[in-house]
Amino acid sequence: MGNTFGRLFRITTWGESHGGGVGVVIDGCPSQLAINEEEIQLELDRRRPGQNKLVTPRDEADKVHILSGIFEGETLGTPISLMVYNKDAKPEAYKNMKDTFRPSHADYTYEAKYGTRNWQGGGRSSARETIGRVAAGAIAKKILIKDSIETIAYVRQIHTITAEINRDVIKQEEVEKSLVRCPHKESSDLMVEQVEKARDEGDSLGGVIECVIRNVPAGLGEPVFDKLKADLAKAMMSLPATMGVEFGSGFEGTFLTGSEHNDAFYMEGDRVRTKTNYSGGMQGGISNGEDIYFRIAFKPTATIFKKQSSVTSDHKETELQAKGRHDPCVIPRAVPIVEAMANLVILDHLLINKINQQ
Fold first, then answer.
1. Tens digit of pLDDT for each residue in 159-204?
2. Among residues 150, 254, 167, which one has the least CA distance to residue 208?
3. CATH number, position 241
């Protein structure tokens, strides 16, 4: 239960952090879509470990293998199965934590729910599960490109450093130039310094990712419980380490009056437009044709290398000093994961809308 996402374009992810591998099964992908391993690999390379000095040194190429659903470079319309083998798993690094619950991890809650847990790197609760999401998102992205729909995420904040970024003009190549995927150079340099300091002190940092989705047609979203906003929120909050999501003006909008905040309409040729887009591209949970934008808060990485108080599985108090290979800040590697989940939601609603309008 809980491992499948989407309605028409459905994905089921599987695998554990230090098991044989991880992957995804995609059902509902249209046939005759030209896609190859290289295109999927491009997105996986953006989230893989070991890509620079600021992320976990776990040495994984995360090479994708297409097991089914794609033949001679095109989708068949049948279930697509994608797999990535775990090549650099080191479960022995977690032996000292086998019987101790790591603070702010899912160790205790998994054991409370299932009566057992995979203590090797968190098993299913590890962020390594997101490989399947990114692989599926690469296929969704290829479909959306046909409709000129573009999703770009970037780091807006790490710890105390917040960047001023013009989301209307930002390009992905500008994001990818930064080690922390913040397209504002001065802020990026300061963020790098903060992450390096936290890493050297055995600590970790959190932050905020902003995402903009361009060229989304008006009319996507299903009342009442399947609003586009609601599905995007669920998608983002299903990601590891997320603590909150806000759309458009978000919480800051509460300081405005209705006359200040309302997105007044006007005509641009034969297209209905809004003047301010405080709503973040949606009204009533349905897209209005403007850019959709939102922000996601991520907590500091739960694994730190300082002693912390904890409890064992037989309910004895103890101290724990974590080992293993971990990101001092998950934010930079989460950027392509946010994009993938956004693309999965938009594609799912696009397919639903096509059925509703037939």
1. 999 999 999 999 999 999 999 999 999 999 999 999 999 999 999 9
2. 167
3. 3.60.150.10
pLDDT of residue 290: 98
The two three-digit tokens of residue 95, written as one number:
């032996």
Element (H, E) at 83: strand 80-85
Beta strands in 181-324 (DSSP E): 207-214, 242-247, 265-268, 271-274, 282-283, 286-287, 292-298, 308-311, 317-320
Interval 104-153: pLDDT, tens: 989 999 999 999 988 887 888 989 999 999 999 999 999 999 999 999 99
Strand pairing report for 282-283 and 286-287: antiparallel
Rounded to the nearest 10 degrees, the angle between the axes of helix 331-356 and helix 37-47 is 140
Tell me, rounded to whole angstroms, the distance of Cα 337 from its chain centroid.
3
Answer for the pair 234, 294: CB distance below 8 angstroms, yes or no. Answer: no
Please give the Cα distance from 304 to 320 (Å, whole number).
Answer: 10
Tell me how far apart the alpha carbons of residues 79 and 63 are, in angstroms, rounded to a whole number: 20
CB contact set of 24 (below 8 Å; sequence gap of 6+) = 11, 12, 13, 14, 81, 82, 131, 132, 133, 135, 136
Domain interval for residue 112: 4-356
Alpha-carbon span 338 to 207, nearest angstrom: 14
CA distances for 75 relative to 48, 79, 267, 293, 346, angstroms: 25, 9, 40, 30, 20
Rounded Cα–Cα distance for residues 69 and 82 (Å): 9
Question: What is the domain count for the chain?
Answer: 1
- Residues facing 308 on adjacent strands: 320
* Local structure of 205: helix, strand or coil: strand
